Amino acid sequence: MSEISVSNNDPALEHRLKGHKKQVIDVSFNPKNNQIASCSSDHSIIVWNLAKNMRCYAFKGHTDVVTCVNFASNGHLIASSSQDRTVRLWIPTITGGSTDFQAHTAAVRTVSFSPKDDQLLSGSNDKSLKLWNVQMKQFLSSFLGHTNWVRSAKFSPDGHIIASCSDDKTLRIWDASTTQPIHTFTLGKGSGTCVDFHRGGNSIALATSSGSVRVYDIRNNKLQQHYVLHDNATSVTWHPGANYFLSTGLDGTIKIVDALEGRPLYTLEGHDGGINSACFNEGGDLFATGGLDRHVLVWRTKFLTTDSSPTCSTSSVGRVCGE
Predict the structure, then answer these.
(1) If both were cysteines, with which of 46, 62, 255, 264 could 82 make a disulfide (CB 3.0 to 4.6 Å apart)?
(2) What is the rounded average pLDDT for all residues in the chain?
(3) What are the TM regions of this chain, as residue ranges (predicted)?
(4) What single-letter DSSP state applies at residue 70?
């Protein structure tokens, strides 16, 4: 077996967070402090505090699998979606407390805040996207056009447009204010599993069930880049300050790609089994992943100046909820 060289620039596993009883479906960093929210098939949400000697909080209210979790940009609220057909808003404190939103007629797969935190966007197995007013806790409008389950939906950084992907094998771009479609990208193979806007707002990364990650330029509605990275790509997330993205797959790998140079930099392994989700923190120096092994892993990036492309395997760091 050839020896793997490890440099000071290699991403490093810093925390292994244990507390969920079933697989971790999604993870989200608090933009304002050292907290991570995770959600699970065990119907719970856990807010992890990475500061030393800080406890984690477990929130329960959903009655089925929690499919998505998302911190507001001000860090004061968490939104979650569930197969129980609801969206919930939580206050991320020890006392918790939540409000539920009900308008979907089937499992809700995704939820995200608008850039100003005044609206929520949700997507569902009922094939629709729905928009909600956060302060008034009211349903505003529906986006109709997908012909199968909606897997992921996000606002653009300026909040003017929305991107969504579905099991109907399309990536759709919408006008956020009028709910009207702007453009539809048709996928030749596989369906979209996750979308994410580049911070510049002109590019969208799309993870697909066929294992590829595609980058689209929405100024000219063209495919920019196409990478085959996994057996089944489950998530994709852009680095907040550089032209890197990170993808995860059911093959148990994490891929880090330099989109400016168009080449993969790292393949990371740390989870025991498939990985469902990943996210960077606001500063881009950390990222978290959640997997079928019920764990949340926290990694330090360290790769922004690297020139190498090794494969790393790490699995030794541990921490349990409540430590």
Answers:
(1) 62
(2) 90
(3) none
(4) E
